[in-house]
Amino acid sequence: MKIIKPTLSEIIDIQTILKPYVDEGIILYRDEDEIATNIRSYVIAYDEHIPVGVAALHIFSPFLGEIRSLAVSKDYQGKGIGKKIINSLLKEAKNIGLKEVLVLTYQKEFFEKMGFREIPKESIPDKKIWADCIKCKFFPNCNEIALIISL
Ligand SMILES: CC(C)(COP(=O)(O)OP(=O)(O)OC[C@H]1O[C@@H](n2cnc3c(N)ncnc32)[C@H](O)[C@@H]1OP(=O)(O)O)[C@@H](O)C(=O)NCCC(=O)NCCS
Prior knowledge:
This protein is of the alpha+beta class. It is about 30% helix and about 30% strand.
């Protein structure tokens, strides 16, 4: 299993991993252009040549980043791939100089295992709400939990 920084030709792999969770409404749909714009924020996990996991580190401010679009293909869950992806993005976040990383998720226990702690949703930056949440079919009745980690 290896984690790579994708090129634009790997957008299709990102979309393939995310599709089942986008269809379930767990992960926000992002079109090809939005993924391309943010391609440098993504990592993909490959098992041999099979894309099995993805996530992105979005930068909000000189201090705050956000984990976005984390997904591991169903057949590959429970093998430590999610953990490796998060650790890789947290390392990148620290290296670039971020102080904290946020996530909005239904996977509270998973992120607590990774060292994140729950915070009130009121402390999420407004620009996150207006840029992203407003696009979600569950807005404004969202049951996601906000968690943060200090680096
Ligand atoms: C959440 C998700 C990424 C976890 O990936 P994974 O590869 O299955 O997780 P890992 O195998 O790396 O698990 C790491 C640790 O978290 C634990 N864990 C994983 N999923 C968990 C869950 N849902 N609840 C509690 N603990 C969980 C594992 O037991 C493991 O613990 P350990 O280190 O003590 O052995 C994966 O379940 C997924 O893709 N879910 C659907 C999409 C989703 O909800 N994404 C989150 C959007 S923010």
